Amino acid sequence: MDQETSTSDISTLAQSLAQATQSLATALSNLDSQFASLHAKIDRIVAAVDDGELQASSQPNSGLHLKLAELEKANHELKAQTATARRKTLSPMVTALLAKEGVEGDALIETPIVEKALAGLSIEQRIAVKAELARAGILA
């Protein structure tokens, strides 16, 4: 009886191995067909790139060119406006110091005149006044 059980076990085992082998063959066939499908898609993409069909990403839209030109023009105009615009107001302290030397506050002032007017101030105060005059566009 031991031999019959062993033969039946071997036969069951052989059937299980045959089913497992069949399942693996089916899975391998599915993977092979998926690989072939992906390979075909990749070949089409490479061919499209080589033929130059995919040029949309390399050539910007003409609408974007127009918008860029408009923005550059507006930027240039704003830069021109800021170059011509000058700050006309000065702090009361700077105005008083310049008035003592007889300098009008909104005219262009030359550096020697400013040095003479600021002679009584400390270095830090002179730097602050010169910076304010430079921001106002009055220091020449």
Walkthrough of the structure:
By secondary structure, the chain is mainly alpha-helical. Helix content is about 75%, strand content about 0%. The chain has helices at about 1-50, 60-85, 90-100, 110-115, 125-135.
Mean pLDDT: 79
Distance between the termini: 119 Å
Q: What proportion of the residues is helical, as a percent range?
A: over 70%
Low-confidence stretches: none
Give short descriptive properties of this protein.
74% helix; mainly alpha; 5 helices; 140 residues
Question: Summarize this, please?
Answer:
Helices cover 74% and strands 0% of the residues. With 140 residues, the chain is mainly alpha-helical.
Write the layout of secondary structure elements.
Blueprint: H1 2-51, H2 62-84, H3 92-100, H4 111-117, H5 123-136
